Each structure stands twice: as structure tokens, then as C-alpha cells.
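Reopening this ticket.

The earlier resolution said the output was attached, but the attachment link was broken on my side. Pasting everything inline this time so it's all in one place.
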Amino acid sequence: MSLVIDSDFDGGNIRCLEASAPDRIRLEIVPDAGGEFFQWFYFRLTGAAGKDCVLRIENAGGATYPEGWNGYRAVASEDGADWPRVATDYDGRVLTIRHRPAGDEVRFAYFAPYSMARHDALIARAGKSPVVDARPLGTTLDGARLDLLEVGGERERTCWVIGRQHPGETMAEWWMEGFLDRLLDPLDAAASALLERARFRVVPNMNPDGSRRGHLRTNAAGVNLNRAWAAPSMEESPEVFLVRAEMARTGVDVCIDVHGDEGLPYAFIAGPEGIPSYSDALAGRQARFCDALVAANADFQTARGYPPTPPGKANLGICANYVAETHGCLAMTLEQPFKDAANAPDPRHGWSPARCRRLGRSCVEALAAVLG
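Inline output:
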């Protein structure tokens, strides 16, 4: 059976330069629309059962975050469910993956993929809850639905939770599964108490077009959505335009924007330090959230993260900065690693969908600390 490399499926991204032998597979990642960003890869190898494969991604050194390859291991799956890490090394130019598949078909990815079919199933499952109103806010440039889940009855306070503005950061939607499964569990006392305090508006996938296209950071127009919040448009960034308009209608008391970080091997929070209205009171609310999350989840930590933005220097095109400044509320970016978590390593899976889901569940306690 001849070797075949392909990525013509939801979220796929690779270009095969050569597959003349199992130990001579040459690849390159295809840039996002707009050509500025690339790092996400997801592809299938067929015909290499029991063979020692060497796959070289030759343009890895030119990726958007080349430092992200240091200490990184790719994931591989033969069943689409379990995504263990496999041997990977980076020489400053080429990312080399070594693996011996047991079967004829194996998939490799930058992180465990989260398909749009799984997204649709998540929306359908959540929509069956009696406390959820599931509806589209509108459509994207490729004609996809931008799904919104409104959770709980009308309350004085409103909490917004969004994820996957950067489509290659699939850990954001794995996080959403854990968060929603717990929030919608009628037998979970902490979740029920939280829904007595606030109504939640959740957008599990802000970038369905980029997700399908296999992009790292942009939508169909090549726009980085998490830099478009100051002045979005229906022509280039309808996803942000629609959510921002709905936020203006509902108000925002707390906002979490869920992401993944290519370089840092930690789960951490980035707050809106640097916005003009940043205050000690806002800093205190963020500290309460982080302290509660540290207590609830051993993977989360506060020692490592981004350096605080100097006063008055915040980029208001970033979601958390824009929302905090515009609505006078606590808005935060929650980051998860593409690698393993250095403070709590897992040799087989590294940072994984299961750990994303657990972190999502733990955020119920953290939100209770700031909405109490």
C-alpha cells in the first residue's frame, strides 16, 4: 500500500512535498487566509502500518511562534478519540515527528482537534437543557452560524464566556465542554447557585470559518478577531461585530475569553491591566477569581504568565481590554498550553482535552468567587 498524506477535511492543514518512503516524508504548513499566520497542522497518514515514520515539517522555523516548538510534542491518534503525544524534536528550522503507527491510518495534529461536527453536537446537547436558549447571533463570511447559548433566567448580572477566537486554539472548545457540562448539571449545587446569581451568554466557537479552514488565528477574511474589538465590521469581522452588539444590549458584569498559548507551558490568566480605567477594585476581583481557581484546580497557577501591560498602554482591540474598559467590568483572557503544563506534567498526553474540560469545570468555583 502506497503512502498517502492528506488534510482535505474539517480543520485539516498540511501540504505534502514528498512521501517517497516512511522515513522520507516532507511537509509544510499552509498559512491562514491573509498569509500572516501559520502554525496549526492536522493531517492524515495512510499506508504506514508497523513502519518507522519520520515526518519533517520544513517551514516550522518560519511559523508565527517558532519558540512554541521548543519542548513541544505533536499528538497522534488512530481512533480519533485518544490523542497521546509522540516523539518530536525541533532543530531551529525543521520540526521532526517520529512515530510507528499500529494501523494503516493515523492522524497527527498540533493539538487534539475539535471538529465542527463535535461543536454542533455540543450546541444540540446544551440546547436540550430547560435552562438554555440556543440561537444563532448571525452568520459568518463563509455562511456558518455563530452560535450563542443563553443559560439561566433573567438576572441582574450577566456573565459572558467566549472561546476560540483563534481557531487553532482548540483547547478553548474542549474547555467549553467541561464548563457547560457542569453549568448545566441540575444536580451540581455550585452550578445551580451560580445560575441564581447571573445569566450566562456563551459563544463556544467565535471563529467557525477559521476552524473549518484549518487556520491558526484568523477568520475567512484573514482577520485576527482578538485584535478587532475596537472597530469590527460586518464585512471583515462579523463574528466580533455581532457579539459586541449583543454585549451592548445585555451588558457585561464578567467576561472570560478562552484561548491557548503556543509558547508558555502553563495555564494562566491575563487581565486588563493597562486599560485607562484599571483600578485596585478590578485588580482585587481578578485576584479573587485566580485564588479560587488555584484552590479548585491543581493545573492552574499564577506564578507564570504575560507581564502586566503598563498603565494606559492596553490595546483596546483585544477582547478583554475592550470589554473591561467599555463595560467597567472584570474581563480576562484564560490561556492554556499547547505543550504540557510544566507545573503538573503528564508524560503520555501532556496538556490534553481531559485537562481542558477539568479546568472548565473548575471555573464554576472561580466565577462564584467574583459573582457572590
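Reporter confirms the inline version is readable. The chain has two domains: 13-109, 116-371. The CA atoms of residues 133 and 314 lie 34 Å apart.
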